[in-house]
Amino acid sequence: MKKELKYGFFSFLLIITLILFGGTFSPKASASSDTFLSSLNPVDYYGFYASQWNVSNPFADSSEKKVSRAIGLSNNSGGASYATYKLEHKSFKTFQGKITLDSKWLKADYGKTTVAFYSDDRLLYEKSLTSTAPSANPKVSLPKNIKYFNIIVRQEAGSKGTHGVIVQDGKLLNSGSYLNTPETDYDSALTVKTSKNSAFYNDTTNSPIGFKDINGNLITKAIVFSRSYGGGDYATFDIKDAGYTQFETKLSLDSEYIKGNYGRTIVSIYADDYLLYEKELTSKTSVQTVQTNIPKGTNQLTLVTKQLGGSKGAYRVVFINPVFKAVGFPVTVPYTISPMTLTGEVSGYFQEGNIYSERESLIPQYSNGSLATTSMIFKKGYNGEVYASYNMSNTDVNTFKAKLSVDGRYINGDYGTSVIKIYANNQVIYSNTLTKKTGIIDLNLKLPSPLNTFKIVTDQKAGTKGDLRVILGNPVFQKIPVSANLTAKQISIVNNYNKADTVTVKSLSKGDKVKVYNTKRQLIATSAAAAKDSVTVSINQLGTGEGTVLVSRTSTNKLESGKTSVNYAAEPSVSTKLVSSQVKVINNRNKNDIVTVNRLAKGEKVKVYNAKGQLLATSDGAAKDTVTVSIKQLGSGKGTILVSRISPSKLESDKISVNYNAE
């Protein structure tokens, strides 16, 4: 067998060296020059071999050549092997070398192998080695102020055992450039560790088994949620005052648990009660890169999975190389509190499913079949009311958000209807009758101030198969900034005759939207987001007379402002139509033709058109009661013209038809 003597006589030398030299470098090693890894002594190791596997088993690369200046890493039973080197206060900038599988354990089923290099908690390089791609030549930059350089080999044993991994001519160089690392902190979630408030949680530090991504690649560092049936899993990290501003990971399902019916799973990340990320994963979802900002003042960051089990169990969810970082400045998000953390009074048949709920029955399923992480579920087996009421007097919130739907598990057949009413301070702020065709409604309800009570009531009218259960997915109360009120000077209204009316609002910020309401506070128009500093809203008709509209502004990431009342004038009246007896036409030969219109009011104008409606001439305003219009030539034969009147401050009248004689 290979590797039956782990480390051998070199192990004794290593112990003596660690005692004499602090476990960092052997006497011949120096940080002032390039240094081979094989000349350094690891301060921690497992499955580590120096120079050879044992006395009768030298290192050989994948092409069967004997290898010197190398180290070996392997674990016969699978799992992790590693070597950790202390590089603190050294000036190495680059690591380069060759990684190869030993040819002696290559041409049969020796399972899977992944090799990774870490600088402290930072992944620098990770590579899966196979019998068809058994080697690679990594060269990686090292961050400045590195403390430990780690080599980790993760293996899954095959029928013949495991590969032997060799790091050949691995060398730490003073040349090159340091890795650009803007973070002041960069800590693996495995280093930070979870709080006691965690369930069905595992990681690659504590587990001897290997975890894989959906492509079958072994993962060297990961947090994993693995259960054999449906329900909720979570891992909470206490990070108060830690200074972290970002959380980053890759997210995948384990390839060992996707062939067959493993149900459904949704994954989310929370900063306290604030939802940072949520996504439903399927067996076809590729590896996801997730980077979320951690809000200022976050006490706990929680990773959550909620799973509906299938006939084969539940998916295994893998958070690959999860890290906390401190870079830049923390973001500010609205103050957010979940109803589940408030004191309330609830009726029977009401259930809450928070991020720590482990029961599968508390996982909400919308009418379209999609899942949510947290829920308020109003259920009943027959007609009647279900309610949840909360004391809000000690909260400072102005918004309630949730996704409203009927339960997708109870819509195939006659389940009747459900009426939902939401009250704030005992006043209805939302009401709707839900059917199985209602779909998902994004609730974003503005709450009064001060807010003392909040209550949700459903009244279910059962059908022949039961009642429609009501779900509020991911419900939260928030304190959101309110958009600035518009002033009347910013708003101009044109009440047009016989065409759409317009409301123009100026002095806006880019992205602002405008809403227009009638005096009954019914919405009649919403603008697009302002591209610059103004928007114009087109309204079919405000009405012929004068009136009033209410106009509001909604700025990016803010609530809608209050409504500003603006008056508008009546539509302009239409000038009185002429009669043919007022119009006289002289069709002259060899000189301009003349159109005379009498019995006009002072200031009125006349327009003359040909029979096709093309404008021929416009008069000046009448000085007294008559105007004369000169037209170059109407034509030698008889014909017809069209004539209209325009009175001051009025619209042009309809055109009348007037015949004229030949020249």
Commentary on this structure:
The chain has 663 residues and is an all-beta fold. Helices cover 3% and strands 43% of the residues. It has 2 helices and 49 strands. The strands form 11 sheets. Strands 1, 3, 6, 8, 11, 12 and 14 form a 7-stranded antiparallel sheet that branches. Strands 15, 16, 17, 19, 22 and 24 form a 6-stranded antiparallel sheet that branches. Strands 25, 27, 28, 30, 33 and 35 form a 6-stranded antiparallel sheet that branches. A hairpin with a 2-residue loop joins strand 4 and strand 5. Mean pLDDT is 91; it is low at 3-31.
List keywords for this structure.
663 residues, 43% strand, mainly beta, elongated, seven-stranded antiparallel sheet, 2 helices, six-stranded antiparallel sheet
